[in-house]
Amino acid sequence: MAPEEGYALNRDNWDGRAQVHAASAHYDLEGWVADPGRVGAVVRRDLQILAPHLPEALRDGGDGIPRLDGLDVCHLQCHLGTDTLGLARRGARCTGVDLSPASLRVARDLAERAGADIRYVEANVMDAAGAVGATFDHVHTSIGTLCWLQDLATWGAQVAALLRPGGTVLLRDSHPMINVMGDTDASTMTPAYTYFPLPQGEGFTYADGSTYTDGDSAPISQPRNVEWPHPVGEILGALLGAGLTLEHVGEHQDLPWPAHPAMTPEGEDWVLPEPWRSQVPVALSVVARRPA
């Protein structure tokens, strides 16, 4: 199918997910409103990775979490805006971008009830720079984002166009290696999906009618979605090809959700049991910078 068809299916799919997610304990929107100090586990870990690449005055927020005071931040694929709110609570002036209008309605309502001044823009990431019409000190994209994008070269170009000279981008997502593993049997670690990019016009499509917050008990209105695999080389190449310089590449043993049924909770994250924990990375992080 044409990428535009895949994106249209994904937009409708995420519109349906937004209604389920907004009511779920997983996202706990009321908890975000009630606790003005909450930044979330995802943002906390992201900022710890980003810290060495921030201005020195921002690296130690006094509570183990770096600050973003004075920085303009664009959060791509922001969904319901909980992580966007977390970034804003660390001092950032935030703009969130997502292709799902239903998700953004929830995000705007959350920001208003939490007393946060956040701008939200409805756009496909492939058109983000033109839709947003501004540049930023930092672009943030984290956890469950790249699989929804067909063309990473265009993605990298959009990230670069959103950045001011000297600005940074942080990506953290599931590692392409764990993404290839079969995800139905906790007793095996066996490749089941392709590691390399699919030919133009191809994508993995699913229609299981459920979402990750509540499983089969929460059917969504448009169940079909399309995903595209991206290896590490393609991810890094997209950023380098857009003229950015790499400052950090990390491979991690923890992820905020169980990407494989053998994963178990450890603190706020999920990890594989040994020996797989030492053999298979489950998360990838990258920090890149636009040259000054």
Description:
- With 292 residues, the chain is of the alpha/beta class.
- The chain is 32% helix and 22% strand.
- The protein is built from 10 helices and 12 strands.
- The protein has helices spanning 3-22, 29-34, 41-50, 82-89, 101-114, 128-132, 152-162, 176-179, 232-241, 276-279; strands at residues 72-76, 93-98, 119-122, 136-142, 163-174, 204-206, 225-227, 245-252, 254-255, 264-266, 269-271, 283-289.
- Helix 1 packs parallel to helix 5 and helix 7 packs across helix 9.
- The longest helix is centred in the N-terminal third of the chain and has 20 residues, at 3-22.
- The termini are far apart.
Give a brief outline of the structure.
This protein is an alpha/beta fold. It has ten helices and twelve strands.
Features:
292 residues, alpha/beta, Rossmann fold, 10 helices, 12 strands, globular
Output the structural class. Answer: alpha/beta
The name of the CATH topology is Rossmann fold
Mean pLDDT: 95
Largest sheet: 7 strands, mixed
SSE order and pairing:
Layout: H1 3-22, H2 29-34, H3 41-50, E1 72-76, H4 82-89, E2 93-98, H5 101-114, E3 119-122, H6 128-132, E4 136-142, H7 152-162, E5 163-174, H8 176-179, E6 204-206, E7 225-227, H9 232-241, E8 245-252, E9 254-255, E10 264-266, E11 269-271, H10 276-279, E12 283-289
Parallel strand pairs: 1-2, 1-4, 2-3, 4-5
Antiparallel strand pairs: 5-12, 6-7, 8-12, 9-11, 10-11
Helix pairs in contact: 1-5, 7-9
